Fold this protein.
Amino acid sequence: MTPSSLDALYNELKVVSDLELLRDRHSLQQFSRDAYSYSPILRPLLDPCCAELVARPHDLKGVHAVAEACARHQVPLTVRGAGTGNYGQSVPLSGGVILLMGALQVVRYLDPATGAVTVESGCLMRDLDQVLRRQGRQLRLSPSTWRSATIGGFIAGGSSGIGSIRWGFLRDPGHLLGLEVITLETVSRQLRLSAAKSESLNHAYGTNGIITAVTLATAPAEEWQEVAVDCENWSTMLQLAHHYCNSALSLQLCTLLDRHIVEHLPRWCGPYAGLHRLLLLVTADALETVKQLALEARATFLHVGAESGRHSAGLRELTWNHTTLHMRAANSDWTYLQLLLPQPELAVMETLQQEWKHHLLWHLEAVRQGGATRFGAIPVVRWRGVNDLEKLMARCRELGIVIFNPHVFTVEDGGLGVVDSHQVEAKHHHDPLGLLNPGKLRGWM
Ligand code: FAD
């Protein structure tokens, strides 16, 4: 890419109606960053990366215009939702154009018979959930960033979150029912992909197609109740969490937090009592049983209230990676890992706790994996340099813990480390010039 190709691209695009173009230094920097700052390893690698042009289309015509211009002039294009990704997913490693999707936000159709919803990819998840709730439905899965994240960004960059205890992971078959995609070619095509064909774009960081609309399965709406259960010791809390997950209770969230984490969280779920804390979202009919099991375990039960009664952030914004966010607000030395714990969980957790002491604090999330309850962990880890973090990850692997490394920026390295040939094949079809988010799909490189 030369400065003249970028100038030529700019001159072509500036006459396109309903397409905003930004070239000021502040916008270029602002839209070249995401939440990778949580990783002291990614910061020095990604800080220098900067786009040369930002484009915000207000309709599909604008998306086509940008895609075609980038193909003609061989300029890299990185798609961006709200930029809340944690691994530099929307950081333009090779500069070029950032495509902001936030103005494409129409909820196109809610199928009354099935509850499946088709929505433009820039729609905020909170807005989508509000529309669904008016029709008696709700999102199955949401990241804790659901108020600021787009649905397209969640599909392309997210994986799980609130609801995973019930609905598993975003890549489990049945969630994503179809995609509308625009290709990056000199004559760009608009495709409608089936559920099966859409899978290769799910969690591919926008490397293999520009998603303009998403069709998703939804769930019947529930009035979730926020509950906090405080426990003196960790093993009791873990046992209680298992008990809740294995009982006949409707749960949408089950988060376990070390007492030293609870100490630094906002007090949205009750005062700090020096104890470990279990945070739950449950249906109203589960409250009595949750309370009874808590009291049997000599734990303290607090019904915080109905989630819908909140006017601002609620319990869900103390969980998933928001826990890390609050800990980093208290002390930016904290970073984190993302793990799937082996069963039983307690022994490996105690081993790591003994070895890393107060430099590692446990935070667990109950998830459904392969039809069974498992515990994912997002421990906060005190940053003591690359070697220390690598030593910790090596020790985790030794103990049979699966790591989803949040300190890397390729699709594969953040996942199971293997190339998904379907993702690469989709890139051949939708981005034959290899211009979409270059450097992120190892299988293509
Ligand atoms: P972006 O960050 O803008 O984009 C993410 C990726 O998707 C990028 O690679 C981008 O290029 C691509 N992309 C975006 N839109 C499109 C499109 N239309 N077409 C093609 N590609 C596209 N994630 C979870 O999964 N679960 C959590 O619980 C969770 N909690 C978080 C908490 C905090 C505090 C933070 C900082 C992050 C968290 N995340 C979580 C990560 C992130 O917030 C979510 O994955 C979110 O859904 C990303 O949406 P976004 O609109 O910000 O996407």
About this structure: The first helix runs from residue 3 to 13. The chain is about 30% helix and 20% strand. The chain has a mean pLDDT of 96. The pocket of flavin-adenine dinucleotide is lined by residues 34-35, 78-86, 89-90, 101, 121, 143-145, 149-150, 152-154, 156-161, 205-206, 210-211, 320-322, 325, 437 (CB under 6 Å).
